Amino acid sequence: MISALTGTLKQVGEDRVHIEAAPLVYELLVPAADLDLLQAGVGQEMTFHTIYYIEGDASGGSLTPRLIGFLRPDDKRFFEKFITVKGIGPKKALKSFIMPCGEIAEAIESKDARFLSQLPMIGKRLAEQVIAELSGKVQSFVTAGVASGKKMGAIPTKYSSVEEDALSALMALGERRLDAEHLLDRAKQGNPSMATTNDYVREMLRMRTVRV
């Protein structure tokens, strides 16, 4: 069983990536929520936490092995819980993950069926089913940023929410928080016009390749 895969990100498509782990190139299906980060990381070494499953109908004689890849171990664990809901399989769940897992978990815990019903492949009835089966079981997956954002008087950090997202992205790629902050500070100094998380991540990854 392949539980994780480390290699060079060679190509990013609409719903999948190709990872070169010499001498092989693997195709991994990925959540749409990670595509911006992955586009910025082409050419970089990355680790994906993987789930293997068989797609197709055995009675029809059409079975295809698939690998799903997640940048963060918690995302993989949350996905494994999500697909325990009746009526949700790996393919449907993957298509629905257009938002970060922490935000989906927060919607489940707050019983926000409207949010969940707007995810692809879910709809109102399935959203209610997700809440019924998972509410109270996914609190640990709610991201710190989402949780703290709902609390009054939260202590501000020295970074904006966009910059914090960029830091989280680099830490998901294996950087320590302190090293990621150093890369962010260098990136801001070298290119102060950056405005989006994708801008920051791309520049930080570039800085990482020339780190001294």
Describe the structure.
This protein has 212 residues and is of the alpha+beta class. The protein has 10 helices and 5 strands; from the N terminus they run βββαββααααααααα. The chain folds into 3 domains: 1-71, OB fold (Dihydrolipoamide Acetyltransferase, E2P) (Beta Barrel); 73-149, DNA polymerase, domain 1 (Orthogonal Bundle), CATH 1.10.150.20; 161-209, Helicase, Ruva Protein, domain 3 (Orthogonal Bundle), CATH 1.10.8. The chain has helices at residues 35-40, 73-82, 90-96, 101-109, 113-117, 123-134, 144-149, 161-172, 177-190, 197-209; strands spanning 4-12, 16-21, 24-29, 45-57, 62-70. The N and C termini lie far apart (37 Å).
CATH architecture of the largest domain: Orthogonal Bundle
Can you count the helices? 10
Helix content: 40-55%
Largest sheet: 5 strands, antiparallel
| Mean pLDDT level | 86
C-alpha geometry: globular
How widely separated are the two ends?
37 Å
What's a concise summary of this model?
44% of the residues lie in helices and 20% in strands. It is built from ten helices and five strands.
List the topology elements:
Blueprint: E1 4-12, E2 16-21, E3 24-29, H1 35-40, E4 45-57, E5 62-70, H2 73-82, H3 90-96, H4 101-109, H5 113-117, H6 123-134, H7 144-149, H8 161-172, H9 177-190, H10 197-209
Antiparallel strand pairs: 1-2, 1-4, 2-3, 4-5
What labels would you give this structure?
10 helices; single chain; OB fold (Dihydrolipoamide Acetyltransferase, E2P); globular; DNA polymerase, domain 1; 5 strands; alpha+beta; Helicase, Ruva Protein, domain 3; 212 residues; five-stranded antiparallel β-sheet
